[in-house]
Amino acid sequence: MQRTISRKSGLELTHPALRRFPSNDPNLQGWDSADSYIVNYVEEHLPECRNALVLNDRFGAISVALTSTRTTLFSDSYCALHAADLNRSNYPKDLDTVNQLDAISGDFDVVIVRLPKSLFFFETQLAWIAQNIKPGTPILVASMVKHLPHTAKELMEHYLGQTHVSHAWKKARLLLNVKEDRPITKTLESKGFDVFGRHYDTLANVYCRERLDPGTALLLQCIEAIGTAETVADLGCGSGVLGVEYARHFHPQLVHYFDESFDAVRSATLNHEKHAPTVKHQSQCGHSLERVSEQRYDLILNNPPFHQDQVVGDFIARAMFEDASRCLNENGRLVVVGNRHLNYHQILRRWFKRVSLIKSNAKFVVLMADNH
Ligand SMILES: C[S@@+](CC[C@H](N)C(=O)[O-])C[C@H]1O[C@@H](n2cnc3c(N)ncnc32)[C@H](O)[C@@H]1O
Fold it and tell me: Which residues pair with 164 in a beta bridge?
């Protein structure tokens, strides 16, 4: 592999139909210059490549654009894999998708990594590459410059050997490596966190992997005040701490965990089985409650995200509130915690007749919304 990037490489991905999922704005494109940069690089410097492994492609832009290559795409995100599926249908190509590193199989000519937001998650992927990809394979990492910490190169050198940083092109950079054969000296473990003396395990890409979210901590103080319910959904469950603590307190008939992160849904399942084994539970990976058709809930617990990857906004929270209003029983309640400044109180009124404040502190509010 050459270690320099040609400055004439000016191609940009220009797929008009490449879309984001979920899409709050149809004008937002489904790729950025980090995606274009890496695709250009592979086409220019690795034209013989026939079998690529792509990690963390955000909407399938890289996987779909590598036209002459059979591609395996790994992502922990349901939304990313769903976007890749939608985009693939416009640009038919040979693409396998997996949501667990251990499920990846095959021999790859190149590994392309879109730098994920969590450096710990990145590190687990580097450790996996170190153990599973043959020495001599080009390993390429793409990121926008503003999201690329110095430690990313250090981590790559630790696990895979000498790494070269490309020049910046349209505010994007690549980290370039040819995998060396080196021993792994570090054991990677997500520590999880404790709540009320119980330990919560968290897989690598779970939100608030090693501490309880302060908004969630406030909502947990309200569990008694929320009262009983038989069918409960923990929407955007992360580690599952809200659903599990509710299950322990009120012993409902069913707790249903939802998240778009596969690691989150797996962690919630593990934590429920450990801490609330007598309460029936189910888990589903998906965008909000989009995949729920028949089931209705007495109670939905929700600490919504305020960003998708690095894109900040309340569009996922809004989708969650709308879905919650559809999936609640007539007498059902949605309990939401959020930062004060996000103004969820007003936003919830769009779908709920009544919104009341249950608890607040300097930073967060816990709100109950219903249509009674
Ligand atoms: C603020 S965290 C709350 C996590 C957990 N409930 C807690 O309280 O610690 C928001 C969660 O929503 C999940 N999420 C983000 N986008 C989502 C989407 N489109 N559909 C479902 N869940 C999503 C994230 O993966 C994350 O686990």
Answer: 176
Over residues 325-338, the pLDDT tens digits come to 999 999 999 999 99
* One domain, residues 202 and 108: no
Nearest CA to ligand 1 atom 17: 260
284, 316, 344, 366: residue to mutate for ligand 1 pocket, most atoms within 8 A of CB: 316
With 0-12 CB in 10 A as exposed, 13-18 as middle and 19+ as buried, what is 274? middle
How far is the centre of ligand 1, averaged over its atoms, from the C-alpha of 287 (Å)? 10
45 and 70 in contact (C-beta within 8 Å)? no
> Tokens standing for 158?
């630790």
Q: How remote is the CA of residue 154 from the centroid of ligand 1, in Å?
A: 30
Residue 5 lies in a domain: no
Q: Please report, for the domain that includes residue 272, its CATH number.
A: 3.40.50.150
* Stated pTM of the model: 0.95
Strand partners for 72: 53, 96
| Rounded Cα gap, residues 138 and 170, in angstroms | 23
248/287 same-domain check: yes
**Candidate from 118, 193, 207, 242 with most ligand 1 atoms within 8 A of CB, to mutate:** 207
Nearest to 46 by CA among 17, 22, 66: 66
* Pairing between β-strand 297-302 and β-strand 231-235 as defined by DSSP bridges: parallel
Instruction: Judge whether 157 lies within some domain.
Output: yes
Which structural domain range is residue 348 located in? 193-370
pLDDT tens per residue across span 31-73: 999 999 999 999 999 999 999 999 999 999 999 888 778 999 9
Three-state SS for 43? helix
What is the DSSP secondary-structure string of 318-355? HHHHHHHHHHEEEEEEEEEEEEGGG-HHHHHTTT-SEE
